[in-house]
Structure formats: structure tokens, C-alpha cells
């Protein structure tokens, strides 16, 4: 197989919503669609997995395509032994399409030392495509190649969009869903509409038209993919259905998380915050939820304001703590938050964090417990500035630009704040990316996020 073969993007999206297949058949059908883009000489392994709050990867279903048994066993055994912090980087955050060297950088050699002997030989020059849902489940497709492969930007962008549909299809499979609206694309008529969907009637009708155009290939593949967004108004998936007489219909199924948030985030703010914490940019979040980029920025700003968090890097850390802390007692929650945020704690130090000088401690974030009625809250005091290991690689101008990126500013906003031309900002940011060995804003957020290094 070659990375140069064309991806059938709409065909893959259609397969993501094929609810007629059992789980194994569904994964296998998607794997066949993915293979022309990432498949290699050593076959491909596709897995349904669950990411535990402890950092453990639980493999639920496996489909091996032209993979020898010994490679299959080594690759699965290695996956289970990836350290928690790096497992999160590979299976939760970062790009949907990546390679181990892109994900782990200079820590890759150290990682291989921790995995079963022969793992590197079993999965050489691997390419990985994942679709991870904030609910904690995902699908990963991994292939091995004889030679290293250069990932194309277009493939990365297409597969990031397709990952949103795979996650939507996965949620439809895991939960009982209701049909809130039915459309006849040929007559452009509403066949059925529940009261709960009446407020979004025009959005659903417009989206159904777009899905129909995308399915009938009446436009180019890339344009069709952009027309068919991950959700409609953050709430519904559109799925093709056939009547007994052969009439083709498009049905709208409720398909969003219903997690109650203790900090009074709205449902949409919770959705946006969860995707932003995974490193998704505004455009990809908007595509995944079927809302505008301006709405994404508004919800994200309000969510961070409610959480008392000033920028996306600390949102990433907090959301990770929030996901992991549900089974911990109050003292354990405080200690874990201190560890993830790289903070000190105002209670006795039992986290195993190395002792530092008083000056160093003053520069680190702090967490303090606060009892408010029956609720126990944690007050965070966060430092300003990049970690020293990152800052020392950059010029003063690059540091300023990078910090503003982490605060959520666009290149245009940074240029205005620094009284510089946007092209100058773009060049400084590109230079910083090269020095840090990364290639995007969400990789930058991951770089300064928690626990990305392997200790020897």
C-alpha cells in the first residue's frame, strides 16, 4: 500500500454511520476504507479501545488486516504497556493522523525500552489514525511500513474531520438514541418532527440537504466532507434510512453527551471545553459539533471564565484532572491536581514530588482546599510564563508570541497586541515550532501540558 492513494472520505463517513453491522464488522469495514491512505507492507491493526482515568488502555475489539500473528501479539502487548502520560498523548490528544516520532519526539527511544522486546521490529515506521471521543472510547488504526512515510497535510485535515464522524457513529452504537426528525431528501419535505427538534428545524433541514449532496457525490470530495459536519447544532447526527418500499430518508438522531457538570457549565460549554482540552483547534471543534467558530470561541471563553482558568494549556490540565478524579477521595483529588498542574499543595506533601528550594516553590502553582457548604472546592494559583525547558530554546520575541498563542489569541490578535505585521507573527511562530520540534497549536498545548517526558 502507498500513502499516495486517494482516500474515499465520504465512503468512510458513510461507513462510520452504518449501524447495520456488528462492532467487529463495523471496524473491519472502516479499516478497508482507511487502508488506501495509511496501509503499509506489514498490514494494519484496528482496535476499539477504552482510555481509563488511570491512563490504562483497555482493548475491547481487534481486527487484524494482513498482519502476522507474532506482530499482532507484540503490538497489542506493547500498547498495554505504554506509560500513562504517553498513552494519553498517542490515544487521546494530538493529531488524528500521526506517527510515533511525531507524537513522542525525543522520548521515543526511551519509550521503546519500556515495551516488549521486538516491538520496534513488529511495528516499524508506524502510521496511526485515531478517533477518540471525550466519553473515553476510541478507534485506532495502526499500520507498519518498510520505509518512513511523510504525512501529507491534506490527509491530516481530512482524517481529523472524519474522526469526528467516527466518534459520532461510535456514540450512536453505545447508547439508545431517539429519532427526532425525518427528512425526504428527494421532495425536500419533513416527514416527521418531534417537539424537541422544532427549534432547530431549519438547521436540520439545511444539514439534511448538505448530507444528501455529499452522499450523491454532486460535489468534490473535500467540499462534500466540509458540507457534512460532525453534528447538527451540537446535538444530532444525520443517518440514512430506507423504507420498505425503497424510499431513501435521512433521520436525525439525538447524539450528544449528557454528563452533568458540577461547575454549572452549560452542555455546549462542556462539549467545547472537552474538545479544546484534547488539543482541537476552533475550526475542528466547530466542524465536530456543527456550530460556528465564533460560537466555539464564545463558549470556550465562558467555560474558562466559569472554571477560573485563563488559557487553554491550563484547561487541558484541569479537564484531565476532572476526568481522573471521580473515584478519588478529597485528599487524593487535591494531591493528584497538584501533580498534574505541577503545583505545590497546602497540605502535607505525600505526592512524591521532589523537594525544591523556597524560591522554586514560590514560582510553582499552588492548590488549596476550600469548604463551601457540603462542596469541597480547590483554589488554584497559577504561574505566568513558559516552563524553563521550553523558554530557554526561544528568543524573547518567540516567547511572547508563544505565550499569547497559549492564551488563545489568533495571529491577527497577537500582531495587533505586539504592533507587528501578522506575517511577522506567523514567521516567529513558525521559528518557535521548528525549535520545539512541533508543527501546530495543539501540539504546543500538549508540549506544555502535564507529564509528557519519560524519566530514565
Compact description:
The protein is 47% helix and 16% strand. The protein is of the alpha+beta class and 456 residues long.
What does this structure look like?
This protein is of the alpha+beta class. The protein has four domains: 9-173, Beta-Lactamase (2-Layer Sandwich); 176-254, no CATH class; 311-378, no CATH class; 388-447, Winged helix-like DNA-binding domain superfamily/Winged helix DNA-binding domain (Arc Repressor Mutant, subunit A). 47% of the residues lie in helices and 16% in strands. The protein has a five-stranded antiparallel beta sheet with strand order 2-1-5-4-3. It has a four-stranded antiparallel beta sheet with strand order 7-6-9-8. A hairpin with a 5-residue loop joins strand 8 and strand 9 (248-254). The two termini are 37 Å apart.
List the helices and strands and how they pair.
Blueprint (H helix, E strand, L loop, with lengths): L8 H8 L6 H16 L5 E8 L5 E9 L3 H12 L3 H8 L5 E2 L1 H5 L3 H7 L4 H4 L4 E6 L4 E7 L9 H22 L4 E6 L4 E5 L7 H15 L5 H7 L8 E7 L5 E7 L12 H11 L4 H8 L3 H15 L4 H13 L5 H12 L2 E2 L12 H5 L3 E7 L2 E7 L6 H4 L4 H11 L4 H8 L3 H15 L4 H7 L9
Helix pairs in contact: 1-2, 1-8, 8-12, 9-10, 11-13, 11-14, 12-13, 14-15, 18-20, 19-20
